[in-house]
Amino acid sequence: MRIAMVGSGYVGLVSGACLAQFGHDVICIDKVADKVGRLRKGEIPIYEPGLDKLVVDNVRAGRLTFDTSLAEAVGNAEAVFIAVGTPTRRGDGHADLTFVYSAAAEIAEALRGYTVVVIKSTVPVGTGREVSRIIREARPEAEFDVVSNPEFLREGAAIEDFMKPDRVIIGVETNRAHDVMAAIYRPLNLIQTPIVFTNIETAEVTKYAGNAFLATKITFINEIADLCEKVGADVHDVARGIGLDGRIGRKFLHPGPGFGGSCFPKDTLALAYTARQANAPQTIVEQVIEVNDTRKKRMAQKVIEFCHGSVTGLTVGVLGLTFKPNTDDMRDAPSLDIVAALEAAGAQVVAFDPAGMKEAARLMPSISFAESAYDAASGADVLVVITEWPEFRGLDPRRLKQLMRQPRIVDLRNIFEPEELRSLGFAYDGVGRRRPH
Ligand code: NAD
């Protein structure tokens, strides 16, 4: 198959490289010339484990190329994927579809022969129809079908998720488009991946329902963690206790500072907006959004209370800034709220993150950055763990204690063993864990 991928960000680049690995001929397009220039030189603009090798291998094999203009690639393609951003629209929380609609208009101009236009971006229900209308209006004679194929990959495990997905959802309405999509994903038949064909609206809703459910699960365990703290229970044991029930499942029951990232916050907002418009309000999702927003803000207060009510003049070492480990993505990361509130309360923040500091420096210009986790702990009055990067788990608490001005840790991801730290003389607070009486 000849495929054009419009948008080469986290989703477009990973999907493009993986589709090339499936054996298709893929051209990844991005309008940011610098990004395309770097990709052509073999430089990967994002941090995603394994992506550099996958891209280089497929470029070498002649199956993956990059371009800034979509005209030629779209003209020659059998399938054109739209993988542009759909950020939150200012003001009302709905998804901003400007990039999707302008990509659709550009694609319309370039279509030649029968082409399947696949929407991979996360878009509210109804967008597929609108994309179809835009193309039809611009090119009444064009031969095309619009398909919804939402992406479920997770940053940090994106290649594995794309190559071995739990399922693929395809919203399609003609046999011709069905066959093109089946051919694109045929390699997944070997590993018996369920491929669920639906109509376009169903596929669009499925993506939002999935993300909203996961956001709800996280928010649920976070509130249970609050209860555990108050009553002397341990949230990890509770999570295990309920998670072993097959109807609940063990994943996504890790308490923390609240969900962030480029998907859950914006997708829950967009779903709530769509549902209100459709007169079918999603009250659970609306609550999840509110509880999570409050939680992110409250985490700084937790640190302040732990420091006996004030961080004024204190140095706070921060470990981890990205919204989760193994990515450099800072979009809607809880650290943004927490660090801002700590600074507003008079703290001096020194942070370390293995991959996110370049982007963080842009978003948090007033904080200092450390060279390593130990460097961030050096001279700190309290150390706050915000992202559970694997390398933080191996930190030597004795060394941390020697470096810190005061041995205090607020562990918002529960990566340390409370008893071990307390026995070494640390004051320690986690999330939803029993406090010593
Ligand atoms: P991103 O911002 O990293 O990438 C989007 C890219 O599209 C940018 O590089 C931008 O320059 C490019 N672009 C925009 N308009 C263009 C145009 N007309 N022509 C060519 N290029 C254009 O975004 P992302 O994180 O990859 O997300 C893309 C979509 O996938 C979103 O709808 C998102 O919700 C969804 N999604 C993201 C994830 C994730 O983990 N990041 C997972 C599943 C789904």
Automatic annotation (TrEMBL):
The lineage of its organism: Bacteria, Pseudomonadati, Pseudomonadota, Alphaproteobacteria, Hyphomicrobiales. NAD(+) binds at residues 30, 35, 86, 122, 155, 266, 331. Residues 317-418 form the UDP-glucose/GDP-mannose dehydrogenase C-terminal domain. The active site is at 263 (nucleophile). InterPro entries: 6-PGluconate_DH-like_C_sf, NAD(P)-bd_dom_sf, UDP-Glc/GDP-Man, UDP-Glc/GDP-Man_DH_C, UDP-Glc/GDP-Man_DH_C_sf, UDP-Glc/GDP-Man_DH_dimer, UDP-Glc/GDP-Man_DH_N, UDPglc_DH_bac. This is UDP-glucose 6-dehydrogenase. Its EC number is 1.1.1.22. Keywords: NAD, Oxidoreductase.
